[in-house]
Write the structure tokens for this entry.
Amino acid sequence: MAAFKDITAYNRAQSAADRAICDGLRSAIDAALPDAESKIWHAHPVWFLDENPIVGYSKQKNGIRLMFWSGADFDETQLNPGTGKFKDGSIFYTSADQLNEKDLKRWLKKARTIQWDYKNVVKRKGRLVRLK
């Protein structure tokens, strides 16, 4: 797995079709969460609010996965809950024309208002606490 310096480098390393998805996601996330810190974390782009991971995307076998760390509690049928003990929810994209601006805005608004404390999950020995 390549080490990426920044999100721009990550997106540029994707195929043209995947790059279009990544660029669209980045644009939507940056617009909805202008106060979030964004960086490459665990080899893919992630946005944080108060050091808590909120949303990120990654290239996977099934396409580009958009993941919300607290997305399982968004009550959104399009977001598939994770299979582990965490509260993540995600959706896969294989084409940029699948991106729905209205859905993305709604999910990103929920990402700000529905949060589990991932920042301190290690300190709490794997136990999640709801922040918002």
